[in-house]
Amino acid sequence: MPNPHDFHTPQPSYSRDELLRSSEGGYFGPGNAQLPAPPMLMMDRITEISLDGGEFGKGHIVGELDITKGHWFFDCHYRSDAVMPPTLGLDAMWQMVGYWLGWSGSPGKGRAIGVGEVACTGEITPNAQRVRYEVAMRMVRRGKLVLGIADGRVVADGVCVFVAKDMRVGLTKAVD
């Protein structure tokens, strides 16, 4: 598999346009990590990404999503009770762990493989302005098995509404 750093020089932040390019594939090289395309791309930007930051000093990533009343999930989750499904917050953080693994130089396509603990402490409604996803890498294994384990939280307008511990993302070789 190609080395992601042969195709991409890591940056400390990413714009929406750069994230959209990642969703097209090949951003980190053929067969390597990529983000999903809209509407499943759950962030508008990555404001911070590092190899040694975060609560555990093993890397972190922070992404943001600007909330609009027209987001697709508000119209279909509960028609008479518009809230963002918490599972989309979890998916956003899984997306970020997979992106971090590619960004940090590991080859392969990201796949969510589990989560240890999830707690919903609030909700995101169309009245929210911005969602911030904060992910701290707890452990990273590289080698035949590439695995990232992270803790994260979802913050809406400064209030924590969702916490996940032991989110696991593995990188797998592409199957043709």
From TrEMBL:
GO molecular function, one term: trans-2-decenoyl-acyl-carrier-protein isomerase activity
Keywords tagged on the record: Isomerase, Lyase
Short name of one Pfam family: FabA
Keyword Isomerase: yes
Superkingdom to which the source organism belongs: Bacteria
The enzyme's E.C. designation: 4.2.1.59, 5.3.3.14
Protein name in UniProt: Bifunctional 3-hydroxydecanoyl-ACP dehydratase/trans-2-decenoyl-ACP isomerase
